[in-house]
Amino acid sequence: MKRTTYYLFFISIFFITNIAKAQELKSPDGNLSLSFSLQNGGIPTYSLKYKNRDVIKPSKLGLELKDNSDVNNDFSDFSVKRTDSRKEKDDKVSLLNGFTVTNTKTTAFDETWKPVWGEVKEIRNHYNELSVTLTQKSTDRSILIRFRLFNDGLGFRYEFPEQKNLTYFVIKEERSQFAMTGDHKAFWIPGDYDTQEYDYTTSKLSEIRGLMSKAITPNSSQTPFSPTGVQTALMMKTDDGLYINLHEAALINYSCMHLNLDDKNMVFESWLTPDAQGYKGYMQAPCNTPWRTIIVSDDAREVLASHITLNLNEPSKIEDTSWIKPVKYIGVWWEMITGKSTWAYTDDVYSVQLGVTDYTKTKPNGKHAANTAHVKEYIDFAALHGFDGVLVEGWNVGWEDWFGNSKDYVFDFVTPYPDFDVKELSAYAKSKGVKIIMHHETSSSVRNYERHLDKAYRFMADNGYNSVKSGYVGNIIPRGEHHYGQWMVNHYQYAFEKAADYKIMVNAHEAVRPTGVCRTWPNLIGNESARGTEYQAFGGSNPDHVTILPFTRLIGGPMDYTPGIFQMDVSKYNPQNNSHVNSTLANQLALYVTMYSPLQMAADIPETYNKHLDAFQFIKDVAVDWDETKILEAEPGDYITIARKAKNAENWFIGSVCDESGRTSNISFDFLDPNKTYIATIYSDAKGAHYKTNPQAYTIRKAVVTSKSKLSQLCAPAGGYAVSVIEADRSQIKGLKNL
Predict the structure, then answer these.
(1) In angstroms, what CA-CA distances link 270 with 47, 292, 482?
(2) How confident is the model over 160-177, as pLDDT tens digits?
(3) What is the pLDDT of residue 90?
(4) What is the pLDDT of residue 79?
(5) Beta strand spans in 175-308 (E)
């Protein structure tokens, strides 16, 4: 690793009284400028400019705390403390105002580090930093606000040093503001404590309130909180062409942040997920909050190329990462999602009691997909086509009454159904050079999962499983907790840290959205945490969904989106399901490049792929780990075109997706080595292709390309194209036309 730390200048000045002069900070390239000052009353305030254009107008910072004066801090003192005016007391103990600046320090930092897996081989972490120590004289307490200004955006967080008068405290609300400069165009989903599985709405900020009720669609667990509340990462575009993204980084031991909009003044304020008692966080100093991030550029491509989220996380805590490897997999999954098959073994049991219910005395329903013979078929298909793994869902007992019953002891994660032979399948997969991927659906009975976690991971290790897909469908147990509260954030952290002890990679579904923690714990190889492909079988997703997700959900980390659906008419699998996948087949291929993940699934069933083996070839060829990434075209909600160079190879892969309007994509191959010649295989929408009426119409053609080549490619509505670019010699290009 190359690493350079240097000081631009160091200021350590102790102030006796408040100062009016603002503290200024510029990004390394000078395009971004931060200003920090105290308003009248000692209120911390910051603002942000990009190329002398306002991005964030003066915005307040601070935290509202719970009054803890009635808490027994002495074990021997059981007297009841009474407070006549709780609101007044809360105001007095809060960290909102009454501050003076008692120290400032400005530094710069520049390093280059190598991720274990990722979109690029190396990442530069280059920023200028301002730390401001604030003292609240009336309470004799201090906090520090740390700002890091990169060339592509800002990160800031609150830090609480060890001190006598601020040790244990409870957060009622964080009051970080983001004051917008106008009524921006926004790409948003409803603020919700329990789900992110919504389609995106594109509207002006002022229109959010009127569109909220329509945007909140049904989910297995959901708790929307405000008619103007939205989730991060929030993507916006100003009328004068600035792209702004609001998110958070390094969410650890803290509640997930949403944003609540004051739509009269166009000011967002942080809104934390509460616990069962309504509080937002329990803190013990010394400690800090997650980073609040603002990515800004006048080029949408630079938003997608930003590494701020990763850079604001700590380096890997796993010393030996040799066992962490990107995975391309298929799965016993889509056939259950569509209703063709079932997770449950029998239809005769309505109430399962683990250890009591005897499945050998029940009648199999004949549609249980996770049976030994069928899983072997998937293993054979994976081995034939060079896939790394096979996910198997529904293998373990308990699926007959797993959902909606607030059931504590719902799964044990180690007991298979009678038709699933763990030992036989483990040996068979090993003989074929394939890994079976474990599935741990918790039904959100988190207490039950934690009591079984060590045993479940040991079972995996003993049977050759090195990765797990976990799920958290339904309302959380302990009851009253939310998917995105501090308690659950700590659980997710505990689960993948414990998994690292067993050298297990984790892909958590329905978990809190990622915030770059995968840098610190790279065995967190994937997450769902958004509306994935499964919703295409639950009525369908908006055609522009995949043109927005990279600007929103993927800002925090890779998504297990599960692309690769070739049969768009779901009724072909299940006559009772009339859903339609709102995508062309070429669009599905492109997702393997545009929707970055080191964990990529070919989500459709083998029988369908066998009908389209020519198109399936791209899924076989495309890499899952990368040395370089070039964002060629990008406009949120409209289109994305990305080129990536495979890890330790000269092969490039290109993906392009668009919304329901269709378009013509124009790209250059100038990212190729000018001294080499390549064969490009172009998988594109055929003439007349349309995501609704003709989604499986595609063409495949080959051409010779060099760094001077250009491509103009028509994309159908909700279509796109995928290209493999493979280095070739003279004999291989004979007879092919130049592009």
Answers:
(1) 16, 9, 17
(2) 999 999 999 999 999 999
(3) 54
(4) 61
(5) 177-179, 185-188, 201-204, 229-231, 234-237, 243-249, 257-262, 267-272, 281-284, 287-288, 291-297
Helix (H) or strand (E) holding 301, with range, is: helix 300-305
The yes-or-no answer on residue 534 being catalytic is yes
**pLDDT tens digits, one per residue of 636-695:** 999 999 999 999 999 999 999 999 999 999 999 999 999 999 999 999 999 999 999 999
Whether the CB-CB separation of 133 and 142 falls below 8 Å is answered with yes
Angle at 357 between CA 355 and CA 358, to 5 degrees: 100
Cα distance between residue 722 and residue 699, in whole Å: 11
DSSP per-residue codes, 104-147: EEEEEEEEEE--SSSSSS-EEEEEEEEEEEEEETTTTEEEEEEE
Output the six-digit token pair for 488.
Answer: 């659950």
* Helix, strand, coil content of the chain in percent (nearest 5): 20, 35, 45
Q: Residue 65 belongs to what H/E stretch?
A: strand 63-65
Angle at 134 between CA 128 and CA 140, to 5 degrees: 155
Per-residue pLDDT reduced to its tens digit, 702-727: 999 999 999 999 999 999 999 999 99
b/e burial code for range 423-449 (CB count within 10 A of at least 16 → b):
eebbebbeeeebbbbbbbbbbbbbebb
The answer to whether 705 and 713 are in contact (CB under 8 A) is: no
Query: Using CA atoms, how far apart are residues 361 and 56, in angstroms rounded to an integer?
Result: 66
CB 623 within 8 A of CB 651: yes
Cα 706–Cα 707–Cα 713 angle in degrees, nearest 5: 80
* CA separation for the pair 361, 377 (Å, rounded): 27
| pLDDT tens-place string over residues 263-302 | 999 999 999 999 999 999 999 999 999 999 999 999 999 9
Looking only at the bridges linking them, the beta strands covering 23-26 and 32-39 are antiparallel
Q: Residue for token digits 């407070």?
A: 83
CA distances in angstroms from 725 to 6, 704, 705, listed in the order given: 41, 9, 8
Angle at which helices 422-431 and 372-385 pack, to 10 degrees? 20
Cβ contacts of 133-137, under 8 Å, gap ≥ 24 = 133/101, 133/102, 133/103, 133/104, 134/38, 134/44, 134/99, 134/100, 134/101, 134/102, 135/99, 135/100, 135/102, 136/42, 136/95, 136/98, 136/99, 137/98, 137/100
**DSSP three-state, residue 551:** helix
**Rg from Cα positions in the chain:** 27
Q: Which SS3 state, helix, strand or coil, does residue 25 take?
A: strand
**Which residues, in sequence order, are CB contacts of 478 under 8 Å at separation 6+?**
276, 446, 447, 487
Indicate which residue of 441, 534, 633, 635 is catalytic: 534
- CA atoms of 386 and 75, how far apart (whole Å): 63
Distance (Å, whole) CA 134 – CA 26: 21
CA 4 to CA 112: how far, in whole Å?
9
Q: Which residues contact 321 (CB under 8 A, 6 or more apart)?
A: 116, 522
Q: Tokens 């995949």 sit at which residue?
A: 546
**Does residue 262 or residue 74 have the better pLDDT?**
262
| Under 8 Å between Cβ of 563 and 600 | yes
Instruction: Please provide residue 87's backbone torsions phi and psi, each rounded to the nearest 5 degrees.
Output: -60, -45
pLDDT band at 21 (very low <50, low <70, confident <90, very high): confident
Residue 676, both tokens: 């080499």
Strands 257-262 and 229-231: antiparallel
- How many CB atoms neighbour CB 63 within 10 A? 23
Gap between the Cα atoms of 493 and 503, Å rounded: 15
